[in-house]
User: What shape does this take?
Amino acid sequence: ETGVTQTPRHLVMGMTNKKSLKCEQHLGHNAMYWYKQSAKKPLELMFVYSLEERVENNSVPSRFSPECPNSSHLFLHLHTLQPEDSALYLCASSQDFGRTGNSNQPQHFGDGTRLSIL
Amino acid sequence: AQTVTQSQPEMSVQEAETVTLSCTYDTSESDYYLFWYKQPPSRQMILVIRQEAYKQQNATENRFSVNFQKAAKSFSLKISDSQLGDAAMYFCAYREYNNNDMRFGAGTRLTVKP
Assistant: This one.
C-alpha cells in the first residue's frame, strides 16, 4: 500500500469545469509537492509546501490553485483549464528540515491523477 | 538553473544481462544529491537508489549500482541480472543541498526481453 494516496485516479473535465485533485500522505512527512508529467518531457515541479507553507511556485498559471490545510493533505484546485493541461499530475511527500536541514531524503510519490481536458 | 539530461529515450536488455542508463547534469553547486527513480506502468514513482555528492563511494542497492563521476557530472545507473519486473521508465533526479526543488530528467524507457 502506497504511503501517498491520490484521488481521483482519472479525471475528464471540460474547459469550463471546476474540479480538485486530492493528495493524502500517511508517512508523517512535513513537505508535499505537486508535479506535472507530460509525455516525453521531464517532470515539472509545480508547487512545494513545507510545514504547510508554500515555499515554491514555479510560474504555474493561476488556473491551478494549491491548498495545503495540514501536513497530511494537499489539494490542487483546477479552474478553466486548457487542452495542454492534460497530463499526469503526481503528488509527492518527503521529510524535510526546512532551509537549514538535510535534504537527502527521497520523495515518495502517489500513483497520480490522469487528467484529460476536453 | 540546474538541468538533468538523459540521452537515451529507450533502452532494451535481455533478461539476466546488465544494462547501464546514462544521466548527466549541470550545476555549479558542490553539495547536492542525486536519485534514480523507477516508474512502472502502475505509475507510482519508486526510489531506486540515491547518492550524496560528497561521498566518493558509489551507492549500491542489491542489483542496482551507480557510477558517479562528479567532475564529469555524470550519474549512470547499472542494473545487473535484469529481471522482467525491471521494465519501467527510469528517471534521474538532482536536488540541491538545502533546497526543496528536485529536477528530473526526461526519462529512459527500459524494456526487458525474456
User: Anything to note?
Assistant: Chain A touches chain B at residues 2, 31, 33, 40-43, 45, 48, 50, 55-56, 88, 90, 92, 96, 99-101, 103-104, 106-112 (CB under 8 Å). The mean pLDDT of chain A is 87. The CA atoms of residues 8 and 84 of chain A lie 19 Å apart.
